[in-house]
Amino acid sequence: MIVRRFAGRAAIPLLLAAGYLMAKDFWEKPYIQWNKKEVDKMIYDSPWAKSQTIGYPTGGKGAGAGGEKELFSRVRVRLFSSLLVRQAYVRKLQILNDYDSRSESEKAEIDAKFSRVLKLDFSRQIMVALDFEATGQEEANRVRRYLENVKVDLLKQSCYLISDRLGRVTIEEYYPPSPDGSGAKFVFPRVVKDQPVVSPEDKEFKFDFWLEPIGQRMFITFKVKALMFNGELAI
Fold this sequence. Notes:
Layout: H1 2-22, H2 36-44, E1 49-58, E2 69-79, H3 83-96, H4 104-114, E3 125-134, H5 137-149, H6 152-155, E4 159-163, E5 167-170, E6 173-175, E7 184-189, E8 191-192, E9 195-196, E10 204-211, E11 216-223, E12 228-229, E13 232-233
Helix pairs in contact: 2-3
């Protein structure tokens, strides 16, 4: 009896471990089943979405005993050419429009309106989306104006993907922030001199961007292994 009881107790951690190993990432299920928390996770904090935060003290109203208060700015970067990221945006719009409770005809209408982004062809390009937020309104406005007006020729001197094998890869196209809230878009070639900019064998690649209005370098790293999905590099 004692042996049985001990064996039963010993099996509990093994069962828990087995359950953990069998657990899947939420993006392994159809995106139509993602909830709001999962959508936000994909867009803001996933292998496909990274951020960089800069904090700095400043004087003025609300400052502490030392005459300073903490302000911050945050750049969020995501791989928009990845189908998973675009699925998250579509699902976000579905949730905002009560998609799951709609009739089939209403769902079809919503699909026709929002799902076109899923059919975009990125077989020759890598697109990085970026948005910016700051606690300082003046700083936020400067960056907003910059992103709305900067031209790709200027960005070619300050914005790159850094490949493990090819080094700096120059931006090809740029699109200002769009009304849908998906951010400014930076477009890079997927292949340079017959070599992939990012390969499954690489360890990582980086988005390197000197953000002129705040005088800061954005240097965001993506781990290649974490970007694999269904045996393929999902960027």
